From TrEMBL, chain A:
GO terms for molecular function: transmembrane transporter activity. This is Putative ABC transport system permease protein. Residues 42-249 form the MacB-like periplasmic core domain. The chain crosses the membrane at residues 42-61, 280-302, 323-350, 376-398, 428-446, 452-476, 743-761, 791-810, 830-854. It is found in: Cell membrane. InterPro entries: ABC3_permease_C, MacB_PCD, Macrolide_Exporter_MacB. It holds the Pfam family MacB_PCD. GO terms for cellular component: plasma membrane.
From TrEMBL, chain B:
GO terms for cellular component: plasma membrane. PROSITE patterns: ABC_TRANSPORTER_2 (PS50893). This is Putative ABC transport system ATP-binding protein. GO terms for molecular function: ATP binding; ATP hydrolysis activity; transmembrane transporter activity. It comes from Conexibacter arvalis. Keywords: ATP-binding, Nucleotide-binding, Transport. It holds the Pfam family ABC_tran. CDD domains: ABC_MJ0796_LolCDE_FtsE (cd03255).
Amino acid sequence: MTGATAPPTEPDRTRETAQWVRIGTLLTLYAGRLRRQWLQELLAAAGIATGVMLVFAVLAANTSIKSSAREIATAISGRAELQLGALGGGGFDARLVEEVRAAPGVETASALLQTRANLRHRDDRVGVDLVGVDGSYAQLGGVSARPALFGIFSLPGIYLTAGAGDALGLPPGSAPSAPVAIDVRGRNREIPVIGVLGSHEVGPVAPATIASTSLERAQELSGMRGRATRILAVVRDGEAEAARTSLERIARDNGLRTSTVDDELRALSIATAPNDQSTMLFAAIAAIVGLLLTAMAMLLTVPERRRELARMRIVGGFTSRQATQVLLSQAIMLGLASSAAGVLAGSLLARSAAQAPPGYLTFAFPIGSGVDIEPWMVVAALLGGTLFTCIAAATPLADLRSGRALNAIYGTGGQPGQGISPRLRWQLAAVAVALVAAASVVVAVWPGTTLLTIGILIVATLLAMPAVLAGVVAAATRLERLDRAPPLVIPVAALRSAPVRSVALAATCAVAICGALAIGGARTDLFDGIEQDQREHYGTTDIWISQRGDALGLQPFRAPEGLAALPGVAAVREYMGGLLDIGDRRMWVIGRPSADRTMVPPSQIRDGNYATTTARLRAGGWITVSDQLARERGIAPGSKIELPTPTGPRTFRVAAITTNLGWGPGAIVMRAEDYREGWSTTTPTALEVDVAPGASPTRVRDAIRAALGPGTGLQVQTTAENVADAREIVSDGLARLRQIETLLLIAAAVAIAVAMIATIRERRPQLAAYAIEGWSRFALWRALMGETAMILLAGCLAGIAAGTYGHYLGGRWLEQTTSFPAPWTWSPLAALPACGLLAGVALLVTAVPGYLAAHPRGRLAVDRA
Amino acid sequence: MTLRLDRVSRHFDVGGETVRAVDGVSLTIERGELIALYGPSGSGKSTLLLLAAGLDRPDSGSVSWDGVPVPLGGRAADRWRRDTLGVLLQQPQLVEGVPLHRSAGLRLEARGMRRSQARLAGIRALREVGLGHRLEHRPDQLSIGQRQRAAIARALTTDPALILADEPTGSLDSQTSAQIVDLLDALAHERGRAVLIVTHDPQLAHRADRVLRLADGRLSEPVHDPADLSPQP
């Protein structure tokens, strides 16, 4: 800080030596700019804030599942570091906790019974984790030590977390006068709710859907008398190794698995990895789009900033460094303030869009639905928004090169600072084509570079935009030559005279469409792939009986008797299913009755012959595995694999490699008889009912429901109903992607509309001149809307081309990286909703200010002169 | 045909202070007359021109054309401006990026004429103002004087009876100014248009049939000898 206190009005040699402008002066200059150009700055700020909001909302939404799971796991486990867990759904003898307590290195231990349950209160239902804890649970610390839970062991009922209570219409602090109905493992009971615990009582666990009670009551409710599913152990200081060794011995002796409490999070991490990876891909696309929106909003103010820079240099006598400092300081101030507004809006948006965690995950992990905003997200969004604002604002600095300062004031074509020469246009287009070609070659060889390629694709779209827009303008000019065509001369002239502004707007549209199509297309592929899988999975029979809400068929229950004798029933088969931890993977194991119509969904086989696979599965001793596990273990059809079943390690041969059947960590399909042996169980987790020829599945379903009676906790559904439910679950799972896609389009539409409003306002003097010429308000409004439409058309065309390619790349990456079934499908109509939404919102939002601006005061034209 | 302003006033509230931009001005312009409205910057000349064009509403008084009040809004105002009025600004607002032969006839298109006919009429008007050799040029390829002539040509396409010009030579050198003044002079005296020119250029005012001096929003006595005019800021 050596010098200038105020902008000199004349070139001043003493100022030439001044290197920096004081902060006070910078603030004064910016305050002056805000007074002069307040609306332009406000609109730019709105555009920047919209982009940052998009980035921030996506970041917040994407990290919340795992972060809430971490908090919940920590809160439930307290000081416990090690745990023993059952390999099968039947649990183990709860008295084993005494052996664990007595084991070397263990300070204390607590037995838990954790199982899925459904609660009903009036017409509201919710699926919860029913957790029964023994008397020593309070010694673990964490949430268990909260006084609010002391009643667990003395009061005859259950506690609900606020997440579960809210779903049943029971706010925290309340307790219903009538008991709630609870379905556990096919049993239906009524039980009082002792209390609904909010964050004051149970901290981060509050948003999760958990029902807690004593171990004995949970055993009674689930019919698992004397059983537990987990033992949490607190290790003595300095005796971790001894504790681990002793727990491993107990696990080995009793067919259990031992792990650290953190392993639960690792398993969740793997379970959510495919979803995370796909969400990350899409979030990255959305983030790129958001930051570009930010840059575009700033770019729209560039012509005016160029003029101001030139005035500073020529009239004000600022040195290049001082002019740069002024320009960048203003960009930083605007960027920071707008990004802060964007962070605030993004946080509100993430909270309002917060939803229950994907349904399929809640079967395997206790996770909440809160939105967790971490400091790094705020910093990343603020810095990213400000950086992109500065980059966009920095383009006028090119004028500081020798001999260019006058360009900004005396433009030679169109509006000053807006020129894009045809040569530059084609050079940019050539670079775009070269970039896409090079990236395509790279991604074909290394699929891991997909994200980078999509980023390059978006950049290439930006570079190609001047050429695309020129093409649209050329087409409009040809149309304009027709004698009775609509008068396009004013919009065409506007686009020609301000190509930078027009390109920035069209590019915003193109990038948003590209991102939305890439995300939406891949999402549709995923949805279609998983739906096809579900249709084939459930299509093996006509009616399914399982525990209510147990979509994966994981909860064992005692099979009701006499179903086979019901009229219309041709056969009843017992289906087995469960989760099996293989390494850190919590795999879905499907035990199919060998009489099933299909043993494995044919569309999901990636390596192997369907007929051979079916025959081998029916024969027994053969399984199919998902390709993630196959890749990890180097398995191919015909290989052997050892599975850690509750009865000890068992070796199977691999009949085929499949997709992950819609379950992130992967799936294993085997014959139900093999499952029975390995898991030493005779309890099915679902019943498959074939109806007799000519019988109506719905009538048979009703007959089964009647036979089971109103007190049953079992759900009887036709295959069509199961498929519909599965669709809903898949839709839930992909909801975040849909949100990102919609958010992206709306953000872009708002950004375009805001930019158009700013543009229209700047052009009021010109519009006033047209009005003086006798152009009617409607004609001018039509011209403005025509201009917007042409920009949107150019943006949509470029966006559709890039988005279709992005969709292909994204879908291919999903299949190869996540193992989800995502067959690539494309329809020419796929782009319509995205283009329609974006163009519709942009045109609608532009229409009103456009109509107002189409009737400018005549004085504006004269004042300009 | 006569444009008549009768005790027209227009006041503005600026920072709590009332500025009388035009204060009780009455004047009449007949066909075939070239009138210069002369005065310094801020004297209310442009406001008076806007009132005369029906582009601003007077606080009091009336503006009429041929005895009929000049319409201030709606389709009637659009029609009046298209059919009767031609306005020239100091910075002619041509349609950027479009060749002259295409943009010159736009006023006629705004009246609903077929595009091909409007274009021919535009080309005729451009030839009349001496721009027949610049038909393919875009505004950014023209000098300021040529742009002003192109604006005159555009105004002429609809054969307006009244031409209002706001500092039409304000950005021009003396030679080009003279060409523009010649054109306006011919419009008034050879083609019988009523021409009102707002100016603070005494050279332009010398060519007028009458010079009206405006100061602080009021017309002073007519200037009988243009030599009395002194350059205005």
